Amino acid sequence: MLALEAINVSKTYINHKALNNVSIEVDEKSIFGLLGPNGAGKTTLIRIINQISVMDEGKILLNGKPIKPSDTTSIGYLPEERGLYKKMKVGEQAVYLAQLKGISKRDAIRELKKWFEKFEIGSWWNKKVEELSKGMQQKVQFIATVMHKPKLLIFDEPFSGFDPINVNILKQEILKLRDEGATVIFSTHNMASVEELCDNIALINNSKVILSGGVDEIINRYKPNIFKVNYLPHKPIELRTELFELVSEEQNGNLHSSKIRLLNGTKPNDLLTTLTSQVEVHGFNEILPSINDIFIQEVNQTPNSSNE
Amino acid sequence: MNKIFLIIQREYIIRVKKKSFIIMTILGPVLMAALMILPAFLADWSEATHKNIAVLDETGWYYEKFKDQDNISFYHVHNDLETDKEKALYEKGHLLLYIPRTELSIPVYAELFSNGQSGLNLTTYIKSVMKREAENKKLLASGIDPELIKSSKVKIKLSTIRVEEGGIEKKSNTEVEVGLGIFAGLMIYFFIFMFGVQVLKGVMEEKQNRIVEIILASVKPFQLMMGKIVGIAMVGLTQFLLWIILTGVFLLAFQSGIFGGSPDALDMMSSQSQISSMAVGEGAGINDPFAMATEIISGINFKIMIFSFLFYFLGGYLLYSSFFAAIGGAVDQDADTQQFMLPVSIPLIFSVAMSGVIVNQPDSSMSFWLSMIPFTSPITMMIRIPFGVPVWEIALSMGLLVLGFLVSTWMAGKIYRTGILMYGQKVNYAIMWKWLRYRH
């Protein structure tokens, strides 16, 4: 079941095309990563899903039905550029934002108290926002985003401005929200967190989706079929050149390690068999590309025609 | 609809709770009451000091003619200028009126010595006495009996009476109407500016501290804009209402409290005018200008005044604040607002500048058109209303104003919704025009 589907969405601003036939599919109860360099169109797509901007062409389906204005109450959105009313008290402000999401004042206060306790910020309730540090404000914003228990959560660069400890707390909370049944879309440059959190991703560059799919599947698709082996003793290995290619060799203490590429559909076991007959294998593992590598590789391949 | 109500509520409450609002609310009526009471109070206070004037009349023409007044006594001295000056000014602290001998057939020159200010009433009185006496002497010299002239003088009383539909007659007095009209016009001007700028600041605050995107994920840009405009309008109405109530309370408190035993401030105003009319020597036509003013004020339809004040304040505010909202949404920096603020303010400033012309000719075609154009009508029409404006004109002007702010909010909404999420763009009129035509 798809929680959200964007079909051939296009959007042109006065002098530039922000989205060009973009389609994404977000599975229910999964975490979806929206990746791309600055100015690729991520924020535009997110704003269209939030009905802040209007698309020129295409369709957005929420739970299989075209999205409508009242759906904003079932979406939680944490924008990249975010702020709060500086002169307003933290508690009042959070209640106000919750009320705008259609929650009654009483429910909002009850729910907020819970979250404030969980984040150990109960004492902030009557403080003015301007008295809080930026990281503290981010916590309040996060709570305001999730407290109305939205089915769909959209985070744009959620971790910017947080210290590592709070990033961890946030990650745990995001995973928990997913486990409790929410669908999460998040856009980030932080590739490590993408691999850690995301089930599926879409890479947007120059207003187009250039890559999408499950994280494991994409990594699999991009893997170079290279294995790293550690072995003893130090001596050259004989490899059949039609099956294997020696990529590199290095001496590491008294262990010797080589990187070997499998060619023409050779299986890892074939390599192991070849090796065990010649040397003693101490380590054997596949070298997988990181999402970061794939990202850089893909973005550099597509011509960078326009800039914002 | 519920959401726009939440926005209105927030905008209203945060402003009403502000210290500056509370201070303004109290200070405004205090100033207003002071403005009404102080002149009478001051006049009374300054008149209270009694003045003694020594008269050294070397011509012998005038000294008998000066009669003691409420706060002024005259007495004669017969030495020379130096001695009398010494005595009157330095020993007794009085004033000295010196009328020197002259070669002219009729002396028309005098000097008034004093230690401090001599006061306008006193000099006016001295001059009028001398003038009358000199004129009489001149008439006698030409063989004309001054009594004849006096008896032939008539005082014309002209009451302007406006006949309204249905034959209802109303006494009118231009001065009161001018004052009332200009006061109402200026109030509209201040209210539109004061609260229009609050809209501008509020919109810019949301844009600058970047909360706007969070809010826009819940509400439509137009709802946010209108919520803010309406919320601030209600702040304005609250302040206006409190001002009216508090001014009344202060005036009452002042009258019963401070002037407890003595005649009240308003009586004093009239007694003050009586002194000046008495000084002229001839019986003034109307003895109690205050009573006359009351009569005229009661002739002005205050229901229409207050209703149209509220209407033109709201209409004018809605028209202008939508422009202010559009500007606030379009620019990033405070400094950039200047270039857009000026053209928006010009019609307002222009209508205030024209107020003098309008009170002179409230029925001229220029006054008519200025009170029809929505940009100038709130101020111009308020100036005209105390003079009496046909109902159809008011209705037409109000209708045009409603039309005006509907169009302006629609246009402002388009600029606002594009601009509010646009950062780092140097905005100019060409870009705003593009936003306006931009299809969402």
SS strand fraction of chain B: 5-15%
The major beta sheet of chain B can be summarized as: 4 strands, mixed
SSE order of chain A, one letter for each helix or strand: EEEHEEEHHHEHEHEEHEEEHEH
Largest interface: A-B, 30 and 24 residues
Any descriptors?
heterodimer; A: 308 residues; alpha/beta; Rossmann fold; Alpha-Beta Plaits; 2 domains; elongated; B: 440 residues; D-Maltodextrin-Binding Protein, domain 2; 4-stranded mixed sheet; 17 helices
SSE layout and pairings?
The complex is a heterodimer of chains A (308) and B (440).
Chain A: E1 2-13, E2 16-27, E3 31-35, H1 42-49, E4 57-62, E5 65-66, E6 75-78, H2 90-100, H3 105-118, H4 134-146, E7 152-156, H5 164-179, E8 183-187, H6 191-197, E9 200-205, E10 208-214, H7 215-222, E11 226-232, E12 244-252, E13 255-262, H8 268-276, E14 280-287, H9 291-301
Parallel strand pairs in A: 3-8, 3-9, 6-7, 7-8
Antiparallel strand pairs in A: 1-2, 1-4, 4-5, 9-10, 11-13, 11-14, 12-13
Chain B: H1 2-16, H2 19-47, E1 51-57, E2 72-76, H3 81-92, E3 95-99, E4 111-113, H4 120-141, H5 146-152, E5 160-163, E6 169-172, H6 174-208, H7 212-216, H8 221-257, H9 265-279, H10 289-299, H11 302-330, H12 337-353, H13 355-360, H14 365-370, H15 377-384, H16 391-419, H17 429-437
Parallel strand pairs in B: 1-2, 1-3
Antiparallel strand pairs in B: 3-4, 5-6
Helix pairs in contact in B: 1-8, 2-8, 2-9, 6-8, 6-11, 6-12, 6-15, 8-11, 8-16, 11-12, 11-15, 11-16, 16-17
